[in-house]
Fold this sequence. Notes:
This protein is mainly alpha-helical and 104 residues long. It contains 5 helices and 4 strands. It has helices spanning 12-20, 27-34, 44-59, 66-77, 87-95, and strands at 9-11, 37-39, 81-82, 99-100. Helix 5 (87-95) links the parallel strand 3 (81-82) and strand 4 (99-100). Helix 3 (44-59) crosses helix 4 (66-77). The longest helix has 16 residues, at 44-59.
Amino acid sequence: MIEVGMPVALTGVVVTEIVQGLTRDASPIEGYLAEVEMLYAQGFSTYRKAAAIFRTARSKGISLARVDVLNAAVALEHRGTVFTLDKDFSYIAQITNLSLHKVP
């Protein structure tokens, strides 16, 4: 995606997940990540949306990670397309209008 010039943005939670998973010197990766556009929660409405996604999924018997519903709520607010291999987002896309990047 980056090589073909697609716009890329991250949330703070995603940055945290990437950096905490590194087992070597994080400085080069942190430097690169610092250059990527950041998407932020817009306020109370973001968290209310995340909770609504969580509750809707739970009512359908689907258990989702809270961090995933928060990232999805931020993406929805910014009309972003999510690139992920995490199946939680497939469930979220089924109950919202979340757009997922298709992995070739």
